[in-house]
Amino acid sequence: MSTNRSYGDDCGIARALDVVGERWALLVVRELLLGPQRFSDLRRALAGASSNLVTDRLRELEAHGVVRRRTLAPPAGSRVYELTGWGHELEPAVLALGTWGVRAPFPAAPATLTATSVLIYLRAVARPGAEEPAAEYRLELDNRVWTVRAEGGRVHLRPGEPEDAAASLRTDPRTLNALIEDPAALDVALAEGGVVVSGDMAALRRLLRAGQRAVVAPTVRDQD
Fold it and tell me: Helix, strand, or coil here: 139?
């Protein structure tokens, strides 16, 4: 059921929550940060939400001007959802919320980890050598293909096939997350069949090492 609730508070924080504060709304925004998605993609990513609930959130976000629908050009012809310009302005807030949330407890198993979540993490932490030549990679996660481009000390992401991939990696989001944290685990994942790799292995290892970063949560001091 769609909602139309308001905090009735003039503060900008309250007004923002009037727009994106409903359950699942910000996760819909998260899934659209890297590009348009079909309803079926969003429904699969947000496995804990019913189809009706995802539909309601999309309808509300569209009514508020955060999300819009459009039809892709032929031959695809699919109807997709994407963030508007105003919707994209939520990205720093969503990423900051994710950084803040790393100290929160993990949910009880089984829990989901979406391709978008892992790719956003890779983009945030990966720091390829600025002196290294630009390179593109093909990542296939949950039957969707992404282009990863390492250039100028940063990683850039977009949905779709790369023009000229140095290497290709097919796996699931949780395995990719583990490889970002421990690139040395690639050989074990290959041996166990958890990943399928083609192309320049050395280049792929460079990409994974670029994403390796120890995440140490700061100490939380007791309040007086």
Answer: strand
Same domain membership, residue 132 and residue 62: no
- Please report which confidence band the pLDDT of residue 79 belongs to, taking 50, 70 and 90 as the band edges: very high
Alpha-carbon distance 48 to 70, whole Å?
A: 25
Q: What is the average pLDDT across 112-118?
A: 95
The reply to whether 5 falls in a domain is: no
Predicted confidence at residue 1, as pLDDT, reads 55
Sign of the CA dihedral with 61 first, then 66, 68, and 73 last? negative
When the pLDDT of each residue in the chain is averaged and rounded to a whole number, the result is 90
DSSP 3-state of 116: helix
Q: 28-39 burial, b if ≥16 CB within 10 A, otherwise e?
A: bbbbbbbebbeb
**In terms of C-beta density within 10 A (0-12 exposed, 13-18 middle, 19 or more buried), how is residue 145 classed?**
middle
| Stated length of the chain | 224
Q: What percent of the chain has pLDDT over 70?
A: 93
The residue among 66, 101, 136 that closes a domain is 101
Res. 77: pLDDT tops 80: no
Give me the amino acid identity at 87.
G
For residue 89, give the CATH number of its domain. 1.10.10.10
Domain range for residue 25?
12-101
On whether the CB atoms of residues 196 and 169 are closer than 8 A, the answer is yes
Give which of 165, 162, 194 is closest to 179, Cα–Cα.
Answer: 194
